[in-house]
TrEMBL record:
GO annotation, biological process: tetrahydrofolate interconversion
Taxonomic lineage from the root: Eukaryota, Viridiplantae, Streptophyta, Embryophyta, Tracheophyta
Species in which this protein is naturally found: Rhododendron griersonianum
Protein name in UniProt: methenyltetrahydrofolate cyclohydrolase
Entry EC no(s): 3.5.4.9
Family annotation (Pfam families): THF_DHG_CYH, THF_DHG_CYH_C
Domain called Tetrahydrofolate dehydrogenase/cyclohydrolase NAD(P)-binding: residue spans: 208-339
Length: 343
């Protein structure tokens, strides 16, 4: 399953208009899928990790047209997690006089990237995490990005570094991400972290924020899909991509559907098994002059149709996105704790 998250994440951070990935989990009916307490651990105190179940578990397989799906409120979950992080930062400051630090490299002037980085900065500031940023023009060279990276790599008050993606086409994303210090790779995109995530029995230092947020959303909603446990419990993971010939049919068999295609309204109500849990990672910016930033975000799932078929669903906005940022703060805090040997 880890491999699937890897592939899915790489797909989800690119941008094109083709169907990229719809991941489906089919669960062995002889094994209970909903468990309490949930199993995932984020190395955080119980009060704001997935040991908390925010909702009664959805009744997978039981959904009628009279009942709309439960909305999985990622914004609310993320707020609770961020409040917990703020508490931990205070505890760290009071105990050892240090706070975590996050550094972001932003290249170019994409409006969506600017919004995400602004939101990351705000979330850090609210949680008491120090925030540093290098802003480089679209035309910058690989060496300039590397210079910024190496300065953050060598700065002991920086515990997390991320390069906001996508980068302009002329910059080699792979080469640049390889240079992020493994111990500060809070995005989890370094090949060693990715490789360890994909391999059985290995532990990456960081799990990428979006998949980590998706798992957290599911677990807090009472859906047990923890990767190894899910494997042990005979969950079957299928991947649907742009070249899959029968995406609707495969998707319709899934108990859990995680989509990261970047194609608005791709997944229709008829694609879903009644009672499925739907996690919509798609965030496609669509021109909208009436909105504050000139665009609005649309998910992959046709929400109004899906909400009548699914048992639980994440909205866009307000689902996976805020959890991505909450998980970034979790990774940054955990990185600082590791650096300071603070528990
Ligand atoms: N270095 C990275 N680049 C990118 C990542 C990533 O995880 N690391 N993921 C995406 C963008 N992303 C984070 O950077 C991201 C996307 C969306 C949101 C979010 O909170 N969305 C809100 C709406 C926000 C708004 O438009 O005001 C929502 O869905 O409710 C956060 C982070 C690609 N690049």
């Amino acid at each position: 399953m880890a491999t699937v998250w890897h592939q899915w994440l790489r797909k989800s951070i690119q941008s094109s208009s083709t169907l990229r990935a719809v991941h489906t989990l089919k669960v062995d009916p002889s094994q209970p899928m909903l468990k309490s307490p949930p199993l995932i651990s984020l190395d955080l105190p119980d009060v704001w990790t997935s040991n908390v179940m925010d909702f009664d578990p959805p009744s997978i397989g039981e959904c009628s047209n009279e009942r709309r799906a439960r909305v999985i409120d990622g914004k609310l979950m993320a707020e609770k997690i961020r409040a917990g992080i703020a508490g931990e930062v205070i505890r760290m400051k009071e105990s050892i006089g240090k706070v975590p630090g996050l550094a972001v490299i932003l290249v170019g002037h994409r409006r969506d990237s600017q919004t995400y980085v602004r939101n990351k900065r705000k979330a850090c500031e609210e949680a008491g995490i120090k925030f540093a940023m290098a802003i480089l023009p679209d035309s910058c060279t690989k060496d300039e990005v590397c210079e910024a990276l190496s300065s953050f790599n060598g700065n002991p008050s920086v515990h997390g570094i991320l390069v906001q993606l996508p980068l302009p086409d002329h910059l080699d994303e792979e080469k640049i991400l390889n240079l992020v210090s493994l111990e500060k790779d809070v995005d989890g995109f370094h090949p060693l972290n990715m490789g360890n995530l994909a391999m059985r029995g290995r532990e990456p230092l960081f799990i990428p924020c979006t998949p980590k947020g998706c798992i957290e959303l599911l677990v807090r909603s009472g859906v047990d899909i923890m990767s190894k446990k899910a494997v042990r419990h005979h969950a079957t993971v299928s991947t649907v991509h742009a070249l899959t010939s029968n995406p609707e049919q495969i998707t319709r068999e899934a108990d859990i559907v995680v989509t990261a295609a970047g194609v608005p309204n791709l997944v229709r109500g008829t694609w879903l098994k009644p009672g499925a849990v739907v996690i919509d990672v798609g965030t496609c910016p669509v021109e909208d002059p009436s909105s504050e930033h000139g665009y609005r975000l649309m998910g992959d799932v046709c929400y109004e149709e899906a909400v009548m078929v699914a048992s639980a669903i994440t909205p866009v906005p307000g689902g996976v996105g805020p959890m991505t940022i909450a998980m970034l703060l979790v990774n940054t805090l955990n990185s600082a704790k590791r650096a300071f040997n603070f528990h």
